[in-house]
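Entry
Fold in token form

___
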Amino acid sequence: MKHVLLLAALMQAPMTEPLVGRWDAEARSRGGLGTWMTLSADHTCAQTSGAMVDGTWQLTGDRLTRKVSEGPGGSVHTEDLMITVSEGTLTMQVGPDKRQMTRVGQPSARGPALVGVWSYPHPAGGTAYEDFEPDGRYLFRLPISTTLGTWRADQTQLHLTVNQQTRSFNWSINAGRLTLEHAGMRDVFRREATGLPSSNR
């Protein structure tokens, strides 16, 4: 009988662990604005809107080749930059100027020392983040505003509470992508390994 009760409890327990982490929306505005959210293990959440640019990177010696596209179907912009990585500092030669970035979090055990998230003060204001993923993806993120809240979930529903208002979504995860459905709308988010600080504006 005890085994039956234990099995029933496990079947009813919320399977929320896969939701914990950072999720970046795949949809963007024509101006390159989008959202990303962080669902923490303590059931707090942060929803951030800001500039989002995706691309690829390749490193040959000290030469970094970075390619970003100007939106879906847009032209691809390629940059060749000389870089050095020393402990927690990334120095990048940008034209006649040098830009220094600070590592966010711990170094990655996968790939070269460049892999990971780097931050620097952006000329437009705020702190920008450049994320060099081990699979060769390049992610630029410039937070504009962050809203804090809480979350809870069961096997099918994710409940987000922000400003004392709760919205419920049907959720599913497939191949590292989180799909949220609410009132006939469908949003897809991609899991990213490294968390990002909230907007400091």
Remarks:
- The helical segments are 2-12.
- The first strand starts at residue 21 and ends at 25.
- The chain has one domain: 20-192.
